[in-house]
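Researcher: Next sequence.
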Amino acid sequence: MENTTAIDTIPVATPVVTGNGNKKNAPVESDVYDRQIRLWGAEAQTKIQNSKVLYLHVTGSSAEVLKNLCLAGISATICDPRPASVLYTSPCFFTPPYSQVDNGQCGGTADDDSNNEHPTKKLKYDSVGHAVRPLVEELNPLLGSCPIVSKDISTLTSDDVKEFSIVIASQVPLDETVRISKLVPKNCVFYTIDCFGMRGVSMIDFGRNDFQFRPEQGKKLLDPTPIKDYVSLSDMVQVPLANCTNRFHKTVPVTWAMYRALLEYQRQTKHWMGDNDNQCQDETNAGKKIIQEFLKNQHVTTILDTELDELVIAGMAQVSPVCAVLGGMVGNEVIKVISGKGEPANNTLLLDGGSCKAWTFMVKAKQ
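Model: Next structure:
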């Protein structure tokens, strides 16, 4: 009996006859994913193609992860019941043409001569998830349909997330983020990804302290190794900012403090800073007061007035290059987790676009 290797699980191209009678190979997995198979091997590619990722909100940052992972062959399921028009408030890779959004409110009107489609032919989507789905399916037809979870994120249960290898949340309130991170099964890794101005943060929860990976030594894979210093996301956000230090950071990283301040602002006001385009000066001052009070209670005194002004002005505004960089980093981390090759980033990923610096940072209670 012949031995079967992992490469046998990747379909090969089959010849088809074109209209002029010439034979041509139909594009299948072995064609589309050829470079990836050569990079990380057929076994890893098979694991990738058998994985499913659930996206909680498609934003400018999470869309970059969605794009990268779909191109790699990882199936996506989207839960984003927000109105489709919010796609136009961020540089989302999957933003549909304005003529496909209800009322043409994001790029023209029914009387606009620049609109080539008749207004009665406009496609109407009731949510971000449904607006993004056809674009995701077009990006990689080999993945088939992109399922949509039509429930509100606040109503998700453990049954809704039990089949996924990865869950990625973006612009989800902190209380809901913590709740869902506790719902995912132990074999699922939970990520958040948010960009704000020139900065970005991703929080990572491996779901268990015995999560294992295979370190790389050159081209050689070493034996499976447990992740070090596992901290759950729910414990991570309970650590006071004044305790978020290490030998390289004698004070809390500014990016982490800013992100926590934005999460606190959302918790108190129930909306994200910068959501209101017509925000008046009184609202700006009120938001600044909330953040200053939070930082004071957390004993953070190292954030400069200029950095605070930057945070209040930018809010959760997303910048395309920042989203692309952090989205690429998180996508790479997901590949490492699924394939089991290489040590994945643990706890948090921080990005400061102003200084062109990105690093991992361990947020944990001091022993």
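Model: Confidence is low (pLDDT under 50) at residues 1-24, 99-121. Residues 89 and 277 are 9 Å apart (CA to CA).
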